[in-house]
Amino acid sequence: MRYSLEQYDKHGFLKSPKWLWLGWLFMAKAWVVFVVAGASRESGSKILNIVYPDHSMLYLGLAMGIPSIALMWLVSLRSPDRHWVNRIVSWGKAITLLTVISQFGQTLYHVYLEHGAFSWANGSTMVALLWFGIYVLQSKSVSDSLKTPAST
User: Fold this and answer.
1) Nearest residue to 134 via CA among 126, 146, 145
2) How confident is the model at residue 50 (pLDDT cuts 50, 70, 90)?
3) H-helix or E-strand containing 13?
């Protein structure tokens, strides 16, 4: 037995690692900013203008965060009776890696727009995406947690 019994949910699915959840949350950062801006009524538009001065980048970030949010939601809906949910979650590793690559490309485009000038926000985003992509690609626990267990 590779994992302890506490690492499985009530349906027999391996729970996703906390680092995977944190990475998905990081990739949905536009949604986090959007919700925080919506929750603070008076200063919501100021927050959006500070973090996303170009509103098209906010919309692009919201669109790129949808796969992460969908995977977070679908992982919690897994059960032996929901075959379509289990199938989508089993594609989670590939979906996550494609989202990491697209967000990395978007960040490279931001660097291009700034004419290669260094920015801590872009640099730290690229490093975090690179580390998260390597983690998802190499981690056995991520692969095992997104698999559908064989029914007996």
Assistant:
1) 126
2) confident
3) none
Distance CA 140, CA 124 (A): 25
| Single-letter residue type at 38 | G
The CA distance from 129 to 109, in Å, is: 14
pLDDT tops 50 at residue 152 = no
Q: Residue with structure tokens 């949604």?
A: 31
pLDDT band per the 50, 70, 90 thresholds, residue 6: confident
- Helix or strand run (H / E) with residue 16: none
- Distance of CA 4 to CAs 8, 13, 143, Å? 8, 12, 16
Cα–Cα distance measured from residue 33 to residue 85, given in angstroms and rounded to the nearest whole number: 28
* H-type alpha helices, the chain: 18-27, 29-39, 44-51, 55-76, 83-90, 92-113, 120-138, 140-146
Q: Where are the domains of the chain?
A: 10-145
Q: Residues 105-143: pLDDT tens digits? A: 999 988 888 898 888 888 999 999 999 999 999 999 999
Q: Are 14 and 7 in contact (CB under 8 A)?
A: yes
For residue 97, name the pLDDT band (cuts at 50, 70, 90).
very high
